[in-house]
Every structure is written in structure tokens, then in C-alpha cells.
Design a protein that fits this description.
The structure is a single chain. This protein has 13 helices and 13 strands. With about 300 residues, the chain is an alpha/beta fold. The chain has 2 domains: about 30-130 and about 250-275, Rossmann fold (3-Layer(aba) Sandwich), CATH 3.40.50.2300; about 135-245 and about 280-305, Response regulator (Rossmann fold). Helix 2 packs across helix 11 (about 250-265). The longest helix is centred in the middle third of the chain and has 17 residues, at about 155-175.
Length: about 300
Amino acid sequence: MIYKKPPQLFYGLLILFLFSWPLSSPCEEAKVVIVKPSVNAPVFAQIIKGFYRFFESHPGAASISEEIFTGDNRIFNNTGAVNPRVIFAIGKDQILTSLKNTENIPVVGSELVRKNKTVEENKRLAIVSLSIEPLLRLQFVKKALPRAQKIGIIYEPQQNSETIDEYGSAAGALGLSITKFSVTTIKEINSVEYGNMDVLLLIPDTFVCQALVLKNIILSSFQCKVPVVGISQAYAQAGTILATEPDYEDNGAQAGGAALRIINGEKPADIPMAFCRKLKHYVNKAMAKRLAIEISKDIENDASFVFGE
């Protein structure tokens, strides 16, 4: 039998066939649904922007769609049709409703919380908190107001007793001390001794941060020449010398990281609650001048906004 060499066309077709045949089937993008509040607030927009930004750095990992939660459950009909791998829910109501109206879909939640009973009771939920760790805030205060050693905190005990203990531990680690003022009435607010503190640090507290109560606190502290550090941009605009708030875009990126861990096979219950790892700050330069307090150029230059220039 005479062996005949295959024609060149044969080899060309063979090579084309081998290189066009997939060595492994491509991974399908995981579907992720964002359940967001109906309120079009800048905070929510920043969180969502950070979530998208994270997945842009992980191309092909997920396809993302958005649903607006308006108080009813109709959106979960759409969610069921999409059959997402993960739901990213922004806000307490959105988290609880997402868990209630789905059975097996993991949920990554973003809300202002330090400890969450829902997390302990529901193994499908991973939380990325909008809360700033006490150590992170106190490190900022120490850098911005280096002469301040005694940090005053006014708080309603039922809400914040555990948080105050955390601030005490963090302050001790930084060589600072916490002067605590537990209040439940306006009369007790008016009895706060501002002379026992170098700076008043506000924390999220629904009683202390009421508009009228807050106005009283800022006025009293100003009369006693005590600077106040607020909890958002609006506080610095209203008269606190400084204010801190979470970097919401980075919070969204953290949530994206939690979602990707779930997509890659981790269980939500195995993902520890995450807290804000970055903060933004604001300066009220006019108030600093009135209190004769010098804010360093580094703090000013790094501020997201400086009021009173």
C-alpha cells in the first residue's frame, strides 16, 4: 500500500478546527439584582456607583440589573423571572423584603447598623454596614484636633450603650479618654457640662440628633468654646467644626466584593459583617476661626468640602 501525503488543505482545516473548538465552556455571567429605595438620594447613587465600579474591575463576573422597591412585592415577580445568583439590597426595608419574598437567593445588604439580629437568624444574608468603626473616627479626630484629649459623647443609653463601650476601648488604644453623657430628656441635654470635654463627638442617635436638640447642643458648645464633630456633610454646613461620613462609593465596592465571594461559592453566613473602611470629612472654616482653632492644611486639602472659605 502506498502512503500518500495529505494535501496542505487538510492540515489547514485541521488547525482551524482545533483552534475554533472551545477547550472549556465559557462561564456564564452570574445575574445580580440591585433592590434599591424609590427615593433618589445621592447616598444611594454613590453606593450603587461603587457596586458597579467593583464589577467593572472584574469583567465577566456578573451582569447587573436594578429594581426600585416602592413598598409592594411586585418587583419580586421580575426578580424571580431573572433568577439572580445574588440580590444586593440597599436599606433595612429592602433587605427584609428581599429575604421574605425569596427562598434560596443570597442577599447582600447595605444599611446603617452595628449589630444585626437578622444576620444571626438568616444564613442567606451578608451585611456591609454603613456604620463607621469608633477607632476610625477617633483616629480622624486625633489627627484633626491633636490637642483634644477628652472626647465628649452625648447619647441615649437604650440605643447606644454598647457603642459607647466600643468608643471607650478605641479611645484607650489611642491614649484618649471618653467623657460620657447619658441623656433621655431635654432637661438632661441642657445639663451637659461642656467644660469636661475638649471636643464633642456626635454619633448616630435618633434622640440626640433631632433638629431642635442638635441646634441647642451646637449653640451651647459654641458658647463654651468646645468644637463639635458631626456625622455628615449637613452637620458641618449647620455649624460643626468638622464632620465625618462613610465613603459611600467604597461601601458599594465592599458590597460588590461580598457578592463576588458568594458568586464564587462562599456562603453568606461565612462572610463577617463588614464596616466602612474609608471615611470622608468636611470642614467648617468659619466656625474654626470663631473658636480660634487652627485646622491643618492637610485636613483642609483632604476634605471633600470646606465651608466658610
